[in-house]
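Here is a tokenized protein:
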Amino acid sequence: MDQDDDAHPDVEHDMSRGEVEPPPPLSESLAHLLSRLLFRGRRGLGRAAERSRSRLELRQLQKDRDHFWVRLGRTAYHLVEAGEIDHPALRKAIARIDEIEARIDALHSGGKGAADDGTSDLAAPKRPH
């Protein structure tokens, strides 16, 4: 290659005819550039959408898992209360739940400041169902 080729890489030489082909018009170059940018943008958006779907699915699975852990805990609570199962750790957890429920009930039924802060209309949460 001669020095002229290095200066103009877009210029093609037709050695058989000895002619130099001019670079494509600016509009063609811009159109090509824009189409490449759009392709890259669509590809990037596709990857971002896939990552978002994956994160959404992960959050939903974690939410479902947490929901079933809560249901399992409530079921265990009721089974211990009914005397169908018994374990020291379960009895200790139920005693703690009962203690917390009693404190919540006391605050809802006449704890100081309940009427002052507008929370007296709130229904007390029930025991696990």
Q: What stands out?
A: Residues 1-5 have pLDDT under 50 and may be disordered. The beta strands are 12-14, 19-21. The helical segments are 3-7, 26-81, 88-108. The first strand starts at residue 12 and ends at 14.
